[in-house]
UniProtKB/TrEMBL annotation:
Cofactor: FMN
Functional pathway: Pyrimidine metabolism; UMP biosynthesis via de novo pathway
Record domain Dihydroorotate dehydrogenase catalytic: where: 3-286
Upper classification of the organism: Bacteria, Bacillati, Actinomycetota, Actinomycetes, Mycobacteriales
Keywords, in A-Z order: Flavoprotein, FMN, Oxidoreductase, Pyrimidine biosynthesis
Name of the protein this chain belongs to: Dihydroorotate dehydrogenase-like protein
Entry keyword annotation includes Cytoplasm: no
Alphabetical list of Gene3D superfamilies matching this protein: Aldolase class I
Family annotation (InterPro entries): Aldolase_TIM (IPR013785), DHO_dehydrogenase (IPR050074), Dihydroorotate_DH_1_2 (IPR012135), Dihydroorotate_DH_cat (IPR005720)
Protein source organism: Mycolicibacterium arenosum
Length: 336
C-alpha cells in the first residue's frame, strides 16, 4: 500500500497531518505524533499578540539601556528573550525539526499585517519546512468592507512570501462572500496551499452567571461538510495545495476528504480526544478501506468525487441543494 503524497511541494509519507494544537508544545509531543505515523506536524500557533508584546518590551529595554550607557544602543539585554514565548517557540521548532523525520510546519496566528514576515523568516531559519498563516480575523467593525478584509489576507501573504523561501499555506475562514474567488486570488498571490477551514471559537452565554463563556469545544464530524464542499469545488482549479481540516474524527472523514480532492487532511480534535497514537488507528482504517476497494495508492481515489473541472459549479451545487431538500420532504428525486 502506497500512502505517500505531496503537500506544498513537500514529500509526505501519508496525507494525515497533525494540525496545530497543545500536543505539539513540546519536543516529546512532536515526537509522539511522528512516531504514531503522521505525515507532518504543524507546530502549535504563535500569536501575533505575542510578537507585538515582545517587540514592545524589547523597545522599552533598549530605551532604558540607552539612557544609562551610550554603548547600549548596540546591546540586546540578556533577559529580553530568554524566557519569552517567541524565543521558546523558535527553540522548540529548531529542536523538533532536528528530532523527527517528518516535516515540521511553523504556525503564526494573527489578523493584521505586521511582524509576520520577520518572524516567518526566523521560523524558516530555525528549521520549519513550511509556514502556515492562520489568519484569525472576525471583521466586526461595520465600517470595514469585504474587499478590505480580502486585501488584508493578500497583504499578509505578500509580506511573508517576500521574506521566506519555504512554502507558505494560508488557513482561511469560510465566511468570504465569494470563497472561490478569494481562493483564486490567494493562489495568484503566491500562496502554496490553502487550509480549509478555520473554526471561530464562538463564545456562549451563561444566563445564570450573566457571563460570556469562552468557546473551546473540539470539532465534530458533521462540521466536515462545509470544508468538504469547498475542497470538492476547488480541486483541480488551483495551483495551490488543498488541506482539509475540521470535523476529522476517524478514518471515515480522512477518506471522505481525500475523495473530495484534498491533498492532505489535518486533525487536532481526534488526536486530543484519543491521544497521538490514534493517528495509527486512522491510517490503518484507511488502508483497510483501500484494500477493500482495490486501491493501491492515494492518487487512485483522490478527487474521485470532486466537482469535475469542466462542470458548472453553481449549477452543480444548486442541484445538490434541491435534491437534498426533495429527499428530506420525501419527494422523488429528479435526474440532477
Amino acid at each position: 500500500m502506497e500512502l505517500s503524497t505531496r503537500y506544498l511541494g513537500l514529500s509526505l509519507r501519508n496525507p494525515l497531518v497533525a494540525s496545530a494544537s497543545p500536543l505539539s508544545k513540546t519536543v516529546d509531543g512532536v515526537r509522539l505524533l511522528a512516531d504514531a505515523g503522521v505525515g507532518a506536524v504543524v507546530l502549535y500557533s504563535l500569536f501575533e499578540e505575542q510578537l507585538r508584546a515582545e517587540a514592545e518590551r524589547d523597545a522599552r529595554l533598549a530605551l532604558a539601556g540607552s539612557e544609562s550607557f551610550g554603548e547600549s544602543l548596540s546591546y540586546f539585554p540578556q533577559s529580553a528573550g530568554a524566557d519569552h514565548g517567541p524565543h521558546r517557540y523558535l527553540t522548540l521548532l529548531e529542536r523538533a525539526a532536528a528530532d523527527v523525520d517528518v516535516p515540521v510546519i511553523g504556525s503564526i496566528n494573527g489578523s493584521s499585517p505586521g511582524s509576520w514576515a520577520g518572524y516567518a523568516r526566523s521560523m524558516q531559519d530555525s528549521g520549519a519546512a513550511a509556514i502556515e498563516l492562520n489568519v484569525y480575523y472576525l471583521p466586526g467593525d461595520p465600517h470595514v468592507s469585504g474587499r478590505d478584509v480580502e486585501q488584508r489576507h493578500l497583504d499578509i501573504v505578500a509580506g511573508v512570501k517576500n521574506a521566506v523561501t519555504v512554502p507558505v499555506a494560508v488557513k482561511l475562514s469560510p465566511y468570504f462572500s465569494a470563497t472561490a474567488e478569494m481562493a483564486r486570488r490567494l493562489d495568484l498571490a503566491g500562496a502554496d496551499g490553502l487550509v480549509l477551514f478555520n473554526r471561530f471559537l464562538q463564545p456562549d452565554i451563561d444566563p445564570e452567571a450573566l457571563a460570556v463563556v469562552p468557546g473551546t469545544s473540539l470539532s465534530r464530524s458533521d462540521e466536515s461538510r462545509l470544508p468538504m464542499t469547498w475542497i470538492a469545488l476547488l480541486h483541480g482549479r488551483l495551483d495551490a495545495s488543498l488541506a482539509a481540516t475540521t470535523g476529522v474524527e476517524g478514518a471515515k472523514e480522512l477518506i471522505k476528504y481525500l475523495l473530495a480532492g484534498a491533498d492532505v487532511v489535518m486533525t487536532a480534535s481526534a488526536l486530543l480526544r484519543h491521544g497521538p497514537d490514534y493517528a495509527a488507528v486512522m491510517l490503518d482504517g484507511m488502508c483497510r478501506w483501500m484494500r477493500h476497494k482495490g486501491y493501491t495508492t492515494i492518487d487512485d481515489f483522490r478527487g474521485l468525487l470532486a466537482v469535475p473541472v469542466d462542470a458548472d459549479e453553481t449549477a452543480r451545487e444548486r442541484g445538490d441543494y434541491v435534491s437534498a431538500l426533495r429527499r428530506a420532504n420525501g419527494a422523488n428525486v429528479g435526474p440532477w
